[in-house]
Amino acid sequence: MLHHVTIPRGPITLAADLHLPDDFDEATPSRAVVLCTPGSSVKEQIGANYASRLAARGIPALVFDPAHQGQSGGEPRDLEDPYRRGEDISYAIDALGAVPGVDPERIGVLGICAGGGYAVHAARTDHRIKAVGTVVPGDMGTSFRGFQPDGPVAALEAMAAARVEEARSGELVRVNWLPDTVEQAAAAGMTDIDTIQAITFYRTGRGGHERSTNRRLSRSDSLLIGYDAFHLVDRLMTQPLQVVLAGRVGNTGSYEAGMRLWKLAPNPVDLMVVEGAGHYEMYDVPEYVDAAVDRLAAFYSHHL
User: Fold this and answer.
1) Helix, strand or coil for residue 187?
2) What are the backbone dihedrals phi and psi of residue 203, each rounded to the nearest 5 degrees, phi first?
3) What is the CA radius of gyration of the chain?
């Protein structure tokens, strides 16, 4: 069962989909999970693939569009603020805990790709989250610092100058998350398998969605460069942790981030490596997604 819901978030609302088991009974308090999606993704994509499967295994799952993106409110559009992404999760927990039939003391979180880092960052200080699951988790700070050819400090200087120009002109600059086509990637010399699979997921009929714009405000990048998704995890994130990684290690950094998280966490419970899978194949290839969700469902059933 799928229910479209709205989540109050201060002056704006978040758009969300609540996936419920077919036999969901409001009279019987149930465990439940909030999902946090990858950067640039909307709730109908990867989040729906995992939320619907969790519901089919008896676990209600709520997936939402981040503030400033998708169907959620917030201006300016296409902002990727990692701190607000973490706050979104807490607002989603507010809403999920008020659903009849959901036990507010048995709520977990599942974060995928960048959402994995955001979920971990939220769980450190929001201990209403009782269990933390991640699939190919990423630390956007590490990734964005590594993306800068002249180093992060030089990049921040350039971003400061660009922000001054934005304020002067009143025109916000947007940049691509990915090339829009495989041909554009090839022309830019980007031929690695992960980039190609990302494009074929997000920018084709395979996984593309009209509200997944493939654009972010360039002013987001200075926030991302200064971010550390795993800061204080070793001291604050005491919840049980499940990490699911893709066995084919590519250039996304998620394998390395997942192993770093696993070593930092005070209460790591289960580490799963899905052999043969690449990062983006963990988004929608049924063989790999089903294997991950089976393991996650067992984890949540035991720890929520």
Assistant:
1) helix
2) -115, 15
3) 18
Summarize pLDDT for 218-228 with one digit per residue, the tens: 999 999 999 99
Burial class (CB in 10 A: 0-12, 13-18, 19+), 268: middle
Query: Residue 301's CB: how many other CB atoms inside 10 A?
Result: 13
The reported pLDDT for the residue numbered 37 is 97
Q: Read off the pLDDT of residues 230-252 as tens digits, 9 standing for 90 and up.
A: 999 999 999 999 999 999 999 99
Bridge-based pairing of strands 61-64 and 30-36 is parallel
What are all long-range contacts of 201-207, with beta carbons under 8 Å and residues at least 24 apart? 201/280, 201/283, 201/284, 202/40, 202/41, 202/45, 202/177, 202/178, 203/178, 203/179, 206/284, 207/45, 207/46, 207/283, 207/284
What is the tens place of the pLDDT at every residue in 165-204? 999 999 999 999 999 999 999 999 999 999 999 999 999 9
